[in-house]
């Protein structure tokens, strides 16, 4: 895991990054700026239990691409999930918290993941343990109104103007961040290269 100091506010942005693209960088830029983060970890996953692994590039290749792509020095590209032996976000986040009890973490996700968040293992525990920032993505703006997560934790949503406070709030607490959106997606990029999946 990247080195952190007690009291830091660290964003956790997980995904397959298969491949990384401008949309990932845009989410990172928005999160760093709007959430007043000290660091943002790009957690490159070995695999996603909810997605096919057929078109998944080797982890080492995705890590190298992310390192080249992440320009801001506050971004730390990591694949420590591989050594934990789990691809389930809830288990990975529990390990992060256990090893860094005095760091303030925010789970960051694109709005396109919000609609299926309730399918993630222990999704309610994640929301009750970590503040969450949902960053707008094309075609997913209304997800924060209709998703099961948004309905379940409606009482815990804070206005995006208060987003810099999120890292200092106890969970459950979440916000939806509007901003510039990129139409790029890893799926589209793979299809353009003739890779199915």
UniProtKB/TrEMBL annotation:
Reaction(s) catalysed (UniProt annotation) = nicotinate beta-D-ribonucleotide + ATP + H(+) = deamido-NAD(+) + diphosphate
The taxonomy runs: Bacteria, Pseudomonadati, Pseudomonadota, Alphaproteobacteria, Hyphomicrobiales
Q: Name one Pfam family in it.
A: CTP_transf_like
SUPFAM superfamilies reported for this sequence: Nucleotidylyl transferase
Domain Cytidyltransferase-like: start-end pairs: 12-190
| Protein name per its UniProtKB record | Probable nicotinate-nucleotide adenylyltransferase
| Stated role | Catalyzes the reversible adenylation of nicotinate mononucleotide (NaMN) to nicotinic acid adenine dinucleotide (NaAD).
User: Which key words tag this protein in UniProt?
Assistant: ATP-binding, NAD, Nucleotide-binding, Nucleotidyltransferase, Pyridine nucleotide biosynthesis, Transferase
HAMAP family in UniProt: NaMN_adenylyltr (MF_00244)
* Keyword Ligase among record annotations: no
Q: Which family does it belong to?
A: Belongs to the NadD family.
- Top-level EC class as recorded in UniProt: transferase
- Protein's pathway: Cofactor biosynthesis; NAD(+) biosynthesis; deamido-NAD(+) from nicotinate D-ribonucleotide: step 1/1
Transmembrane residues, as ranges? none
């Amino acid at each position: 895991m990247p080195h952190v100091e007690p009291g830091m506010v660290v964003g956790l942005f997980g995904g397959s990054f298969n491949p990384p693209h401008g949309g990932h960088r845009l989410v990172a830029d928005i999160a760093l700026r709007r959430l007043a983060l000290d660091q943002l970890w790009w957690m490159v996953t070995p695999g996603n239990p909810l997605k096919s692994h057929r078109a998944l590039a080797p982890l080492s290749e995705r890590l190298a691409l992310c390192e080249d792509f992440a320009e801001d020095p506050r971004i730390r590209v990591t694949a420590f999930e591989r050594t934990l032996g789990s691809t389930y976000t809830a288990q990975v986040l529990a390990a992060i918290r256990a090893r860094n009890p005095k760091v303030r973490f925010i789970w960051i996700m694109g709005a396109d993941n919000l609609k299926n968040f309730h399918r993630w293992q222990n999704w309610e525990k994640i929301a009750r343990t970590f503040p969450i920032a949902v960053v707008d993505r094309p075609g997913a703006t209304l997800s924060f109104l209709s998703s099961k997560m948004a309905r379940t934790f409606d009482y815990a949503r804070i206005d995006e103007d208060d987003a810099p406070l999120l890292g200092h709030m106890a969970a459950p607490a979440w916000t939806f961040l509007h901003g510039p959106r990129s139409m790029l997606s890893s799926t589209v990029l793979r299809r353009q290269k003739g890779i199915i999946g």
